[in-house]
Amino acid sequence: MDTAKAVANSDEASLNQEAIKVEDLHKSFGQLEVLKGVSLTACKGDVVAIIGGSGSGKSTMLRCINFLETPSSGKITIGGELVEMHADGSPSNRRQIERIRTRLAMVFQQFNLWTHRSLLENVIEVPVHVLKVPKSQAIVRAHELLERVGLGDKADTYPAYLSGGQQQRAAIARALAVDPSVMLFDEPTSALDPELVGEVLTVIRDLAAEGRTMLLVTHEMKFAREVANHVVYLYEGRIEEQGPPAEVFGNPKSDRLKQFLSSVA
Ligand code: ADP
Ligand code: MG
């Protein structure tokens, strides 16, 4: 193999390994600059935990990555594909963002299930109506996914009849239904009664163990330490410190991080 080709191939290999790359991301709401230049990379199979105080920009960051918010500037590359940043509403930009969104799946603090639909209907909605998967096939898959999160007998139940933990597990099944390349979790357990947290963490832990790529905003420090292979501490819209969990939790450098960790302990 000649050198140029070898280089091209190794570039390709490194691109394939990068599930998500965020470069110098900025986001303002009017005068308020919430993200002040955030950069991070998650390779395939990485579990990146994002920690930080309330208002530090964690949700805004995830929402920008998913284009639920339009970033003010910066670059976002998903699976090697650079996403056009200034969402100008042009059809090609809209199509790209819609396509990118189907590769990411977000799980919200408040579950966000469709309340007037059964769990099965919730799980098949996007595969059938957006991804155009044949309905019968989507239904088979939905049953498998509900089974997986321990809700095999609840397919026909409406969200209102379920506990918060069950609703969140259903939301995870729904997220999995698009076979996402990256899963985004925004404090998935913080709206739950304490006794229901464990069952949701168990599902997330299993997904991490099977090599799912995820960005996980969480205030469960013990859990972050256990499942993440990289931890990012956000402070007022900037990454104040990041590194492997043993370093970030066991040997924090920044005084702000030390203070944060002692406040949540
Ligand atoms: P975190 O998730 O870390 O608690 P957020 O990303 O939700 O923080 O919010 C960061 C800051 O951005 C907060 O000051 C919040 O009030 C502000 N913010 C978030 N979304 C909006 C919005 N849509 N319009 C105006 N301000 C917003
Ligand atoms: Mg938040």
Task: Write up what this structure looks like.
There is one protein chain. By secondary structure, the protein is of the alpha/beta class. The chain has a domain at 20-103 and 208-265: 3-Layer(aba) Sandwich (Rossmann fold), CATH 3.40.50.300. 42% of the residues lie in helices and 24% in strands. The chain is built from ten helices and ten strands. The strands form two sheets. Strands 6-7-8-3-9-10 form a six-stranded mixed beta sheet, with helices on both faces. It has a four-stranded antiparallel beta sheet with strand order 2-1-4-5. The N and C termini lie far apart (55 Å). Bound molecules: adenosine-5'-diphosphate and magnesium ion. Residues 58-59, 187 line the site of magnesium ion (MG).
Summarize the structure.
The protein is α/β, with parallel strands linked by helices.
Task: Encode the helix/strand succession as letters.
Answer: HEEEHEEHEHHHEHEHEEHH
Give the DSSP E fraction (strand runs of 2 or more residues): 15-25%
CATH hierarchy: architecture of the domain at 20-103 and 208-265: 3-Layer(aba) Sandwich
Can you summarize the main beta sheet?
6 strands, mixed
CATH class of the domain at 20-103 and 208-265: Alpha Beta
**The CATH H-level homologous superfamily of the domain at 20-103 and 208-265:** P-loop containing nucleotide triphosphate hydrolases
Strands ordered across the widest β-sheet? 6-7-8-3-9-10
State the low-pLDDT regions, or none: 1-8
Provide mean pLDDT, rounded.
91
Task: Give the cofactors and ligands.
Answer: adenosine-5'-diphosphate, magnesium ion
